[in-house]
Design goal:
Blueprint: H1 14-22, E1 33-46, E2 49-62, E3 66-70, H2 77-84, E4 92-97, E5 100-101, H3 107-117, E6 118-122, H4 133-143, H5 148-161, H6 177-189, E7 195-199, H7 207-222, E8 228-231, H8 235-239, E9 243-248, E10 251-257
Parallel strand pairs: 3-8, 3-9, 6-7, 7-8
Antiparallel strand pairs: 1-2, 1-4, 4-5, 9-10
Helix pairs in contact: 4-5, 4-6, 6-7
């Protein structure tokens, strides 16, 4: 399980160069800060006029913190997660991950950064069903240029830590929903990301399996000091995280410690 304890601020080679080029001499580069969102806004054009999806969002997340983002449908939660995950560019504002101003980078460098610094866990798992569990988990490592032997070793150690090493040669489609979500969690960790983004990770699971998956995320945060930002509609789960950020009408309405 030691593989989960390793701390890596970036990938080697060109990624290291990219990091040094985009570092900012501000408090966003604090050793204790994993994520800083600064004056973040997103405005979409529509046939009926401009739609403000995010309106001057500001918050920081410490390394090892487990933060939930909650709010009604249409509040801007998914848009915010897309910005933090560098899946879309904001209209204005900055997102810093490990001190890197991610939107100061080119699109190609953002793709490299996303694979190296961010782990994703989706509600619908988003696994490749035509290949094995092991290949799904090691895929981000292979994309980042990790040697095959290291990718295999890391993937197997994480699968073992999550209790599903015996499923490594199976295909995801043959697993239960809870097992598939564990595979997705393992995949999110293989590159030692600075942050893990979980979008309704229990949404497609029954209550008991969902609780098991959530407990696993809590363990990753508390025991292995992983930084996790989770979007959820479940108030009980949100109250069990370190902090809850309530988004309403594209703004932070409340940011409370639990």
């Amino acid at each position: 399980m030691g593989v989960l304890n390793k701390d890596k601020s970036g990938l080697k080679g060109s990624f290291t160069t990219m990091v040094s080029e985009s570092r900012q001499t501000t408090d966003t580069n604090s050793n204790s800060t994993a994520l800083a969102v600064k004056n973040l806004s997103k405005i979409y054009d529509s046939v009926s006029g401009k739609v403000v999806a995010l309106d001057n969002i500001n918050f920081t997340v410490k390394k090892g913190e487990f933060v939930s983002i909650v709010g009604p449908s249409g509040s801007g939660k998914s848009t915010l997660l897309n910005m933090i995950g560098a899946l879309d560019r904001p209209t204005s504002g900055q997102v810093y991950i490990n001190g890197i101003d991610i939107f100061a980078l080119s699109d190609s460098k953002i793709a490299t950064m996303r694979n190296g610094l961010i782990g994703f866990i989706f509600q619908s798992f988003n696994l490749i069903n035509r290949t094995t569990v092991l290949k799904n988990v090691k895929l981000p490592g292979m994309i980042s240029g990790m040697p095959v032997s290291e990718a295999n070793n890391r993937a197997m150690k994480i699968l073992e830590a999550l209790g599903i090493a015996d499923k490594a040669t199976q295909k995801p489609v043959n697993l239960s929903g809870g097992q598939q979500q564990r595979v997705a969690i393992a995949r999110s960790l293989v590159n030692n990301p600075a942050i893990v983004l979980a979008d309704e990770p229990t949404g497609n699971l029954d209550s008991k399996t969902g609780d098991d998956v959530f407990d696993m995320l809590k363990t990753l945060s508390r025991k292995f000091k992983r930084t996790i930002i989770m979007v959820t509609h479940n108030p009980e789960l949100a109250e069990s995280t370190d902090r809850s950020i309530l988004i309403k009408d594209g703004k932070v309405e409340r940011d409370v410690a639990n």
